Amino acid sequence: MLMGYVYDRTMERSELAIVDTRTLQDTASVKLPHRMPAGFHGNWAPSATYECARHTLFGTVRSMPLRYVDPHKKRGRVYRASVQFGRSRAGQFMARHVARHTDPYLFRLTGGRVNMGAIINAPLVSTGAKSGQPRQVQLTYFHDGPDVILIASNFGGTKHPQWSYNLKAHPDCEFGGERFSASQVTDADEYARLYKLAEQIYAGYGDYSVKTAPVGRQIPVFRLTPR
After folding, report:
1. Which of 32, 122, 200, 220 is positioned for an S-S bond with 152, CB 3.0–4.6 A?
2. Quick one: pLDDT band at residue 65, thresholds 50, 70, 90?
3. Which domains are seen in the chain, by residue range?
4. What is the pLDDT of residues 90-124, one digit of tens each?
5. Which residue did the predictor score with more confidence, 42 or 216?
6. Is residue 1 a contact partner of residue 43, using CB atoms and an 8 Å limit?
7. Pairing of β 41-44 and β 142-144
8. How far apart are CA 16 and CA 136, in angstroms?
9. Is the pLDDT of residue 184 over 60?
10. Residue 71 Ramachandran class (φ > 0 left, ψ -120 to 50 alpha, else beta)
11. d(C-alpha 36, C-alpha 108), whole Å
12. What is d(CA 201, CA 80) in angstroms, rounded to the nearest whole number?
């Protein structure tokens, strides 16, 4: 299967398309809210993954356990290229305006087996700090032992993301379909260690810390402990 972001000039719309490479027929598509940048942006997945995911959508197959992301793992050229693109202007546009719509769909469709890019992400379900209602957002992560580490970068913006306030107000949450309790990392040495590991997963976190420095914003780091 080939999954890619495409722009249809005849219909003037962008979409996430999933194509069977044996027949070149579309098997699924999702309309996107913004026009895609020029060029091909996609990923391959085994047909068996998609077939299994079709059953997942109807509740007959459970999603796989949250994938373990080891920050110490040596990563190859494809991964580094994906990171480089993610740090580019086009990559940042896709992350902000496109991936946040399509990544949750892909996670549900494939049971967490496939991401559009090489950098793994999963859905965080938190409780709204003010509303008390469930709130979901797709986030990049890595593991520190059995714990999940989340970086509240907000793409280097001047404000913290809303989900960070949710976790501070209501620590119990779900990530990738598994239950956790969240705590913000406040120890300076531990913070520095984890942030350095985060940059090994995605070097763009270093860009974000540079962007937030002029406004005095320290990017929060959260540890999710299984419960």
Report:
1. 220
2. confident
3. 2-110 (no CATH), 121-226 (2.30.110.10)
4. 889 888 887 877 888 778 877 777 777 788 999 99
5. 216
6. no
7. unpaired
8. 20
9. yes
10. alpha
11. 22
12. 10
